[in-house]
Amino acid sequence: MGLKDNDRAEIEALRAETRPTLRAVSEGMEAHLYHAHEVLDHGFVRVVDYMGDDAAICQAARVSYGRGTKSVQNDEGLIRYLMRHWHSTPFEMCEIKLHVKLPVFVARQWIRHRTANVNEYSGRYSILDREFYIPSAEHLAAQSVVNNQGRGEALTGEEAARVLDWLKADSTRAYDHYEAMISQDGQQGLARELARMNLPANIYTQWYWKVDLHNLFHFLRLRADAHAQYEIRVYAEAICEIVKDWVPAAYAAFEDYRLGSVQLSGKGVACLKRMLAGEEVTQEGSGMSKGEWREFREVWG
Questions:
Q1: Do both 37 and 155 map to the same domain?
Q2: Is 223 a catalytic residue?
Q3: 238 and 127 in one domain?
Q4: Domain identity same for 118 and 158
């Protein structure tokens, strides 16, 4: 999978080191420190560092001196209130730094969330590893006929086999040429910053990604959604499991008010009221477009 033996040994050595601290500590998050959660065929997510916990959110909201100002029940109630009413600043007081190994095409989606600090592995200074994301057969799907950015049914038989063969062969060929271009055996060798342009988008890269909890929740709301692309969704789901242990009260509120909720437009609310009053409402009489009406019906049946 994603971690090499020497990387794993280095992480285990770091994990074995302990230091006393006076800062707020999340016991759930401590268990994740220096532990790599493997994703896809060569990827992983691991926690490098973090700041804050559920109590830090409440402390910031109340601008208090310490942790013992209110009961746990009151803290949970406050966090749910803050989440319910879309407050952001108290959640920004918690931060997490992740080390992520991911395919380049996933990284290009991920980087669109421009509210984090990122430092990526450099293909100018270092030689990229021969590691490519090759989907398993069940994740080879045709283009969706109803969504221009989605997938339809899985490919089968000879077509699926042919696509897998091409993905593997093209990746291998591109890397062979990359190695040949940068080689200095009997030639000058092309600069690494130029040779890397020949590599496909399924090659793996790595980065450190630091983000506050408010913006992380926004990332997870979009990328852990069932409609998100599978290859980024599995990373988001792995991060969800980490955040659940880090800030359990905040994550429970997020799961309830963001992941498990739906949003209605003003027209949607008006239609729902009419339907609850016993009126039969059609798309033509709803004031919604066909797309809006379809999404409305998907929620309410």
A1: no
A2: yes
A3: yes
A4: no
Write the pLDDT tens digit of every residue in 57-97: 999 998 866 655 556 668 999 999 999 999 999 999 999 99
Site of tokens 């969504």:
147
Given 223, 233, 258, 297, the catalytic residue: 223
pTM over 0.85: yes
Note whether 57 and 250 are within 8 A (CB).
yes
Residue 186 Ramachandran class (φ > 0 left, ψ -120 to 50 alpha, else beta): left
- Residue range(s) defining the domain that contains residue 294: 266-300
Q: How far is CA 133 from the centre of its chain?
A: 17
**Does 133 show up as a binding residue in the annotation?**
no
Claim to verify: residue 193 and residue 212 sit in the same structural domain: no
Strand ranges for the chain from DSSP E: 36-39, 43-51, 95-103, 117-120, 141-143, 151-154, 204-212
**Pair of tokens at residue 50:** 């973090």
Q: Tell me: is residue 294 an annotated ligand-binding position.
A: no
Residue 35 phi/psi, 5-degree rounding, is -115, 125
Task: List all residues 6 or more positions away from 82 whose beta carbon is below 8 Å from its beta carbon.
Answer: 57, 61, 90, 91, 253
Q: Which run of H or E residues covers position 180? A: helix 157-182
Q: Is 209 annotated as a binding residue?
A: no
